[in-house]
Amino acid sequence: MATSRDTEEADVPKGRVLIIAGSDSGGGAGIQADIKTVTMLGGYAATAITALTIQNTLGVSGVVATPSKAVRAQMHAVLKDIGADVLKTGMLGDKLLVETLAEAFEDLARDVPRVVDPVMVATSGDVLLPREAVDAVRRLMVPGATLVTPNAPEAEVLTGKAVDGLNGQRRAAEKLLDMGALAALVKGAHVPGDVIVDVLATQQGEHFFDGPRINTKATHGTGCTLASGIAAGIARGLSLTDAVALSRAYLFEAISRATELGQGNGPVDHGWPVRDPEAFATLFAKWRPATK
Fold first, then answer.
1. Where along the chain do its domains lie?
2. With CB atoms counted within 10 Å of each terminal CB, which end of the chain scores lower, N or C?
């Protein structure tokens, strides 16, 4: 079925991102972080909720999964009306949902680019993806993905490669390409050091993005934020490397400007562009989306 309205401008990027992920009652990660990020970066966020998580900055105390048929129905409702320029996945919950989504991608959005954030463990350390679902992610989510964005522990689980430094990140990224991903961004925040390096591997080569490590507890939702920012950039017409650069710059400021909320790992400041529009305009101008 068509995923965008049949208009004479149907080939122009509009920034529509359909986010398929779990809800975070604390507001710092998951769907809440995704919507804030896509909106701040000029896109339009629609959602298919995969689960309700009961959590705050101290951890996850409960998860209520959405029936897989209901997740597919949410996707269908959005795609047949609003359409999507990019799909972004986050917390998927279980094997059945992964299998259902793989079928939905094929049936409803075969040609829509996908940014896959293989959410397995929360910042608090709580496990969000059962072991039996990991293999389904390897088989069904990674192949054909426009971009896969694992952190170091997730990359180790997906690829079986040790990720304890830059070379490990590179090996894992290469393995993800071998598994069928079109590109892989293996993040370095879990790798020790004062400088964080993210490794982007594509069919055309490698790109390295680095920046200083910020000494803060405001790190809840950073993975969701980065992946959603990249999805928004791609949806608005940026190249993959520019979308990564823009999202990283936005996230760096969001971490730097965060105030302490809660008693544990607090959220980043997603709304900083509203309070400092001049700084955001300067940043955004560096990676202005292409026009047709």
1. 16-271
2. C
Q: How far apart are CA 189 and CA 179, in angstroms?
A: 23
Choice among 219, 225, 229, 266 that is catalytic: 219
Check if 187 is active-site: yes
The catalytic position among 222, 229, 233, 237 is 222
User: What's the fold here for domain 16-271?
Assistant: UDP-N-acetylmuramoyl-L-alanine:D-glutamate ligase (3.40.1190)
Helices (H), 82-121: 95-108
pLDDT band at 139 (very low <50, low <70, confident <90, very high): very high
**pTM of full prediction above 0.90:** yes
The answer to whether 223 is a known catalytic residue is yes
Select which of 83, 224, 229, 237 is catalytic. Answer: 224
Contacts of 186 (CB under 8 A, 6+ apart): 150, 151, 152, 155, 163, 169, 170, 172, 173, 176, 198, 199, 201
Q: What separation in angstroms does the CA of 52 have from each of 27, 141, 233, 265?
A: 12, 21, 27, 19
Active site residue 26: no
178 — alpha (psi -120 to 50), left (phi > 0) or beta?
alpha
pLDDT in tens, 59-117: 889 999 999 999 999 999 999 999 999 999 999 989 999 999 999 999 999 999 999 99
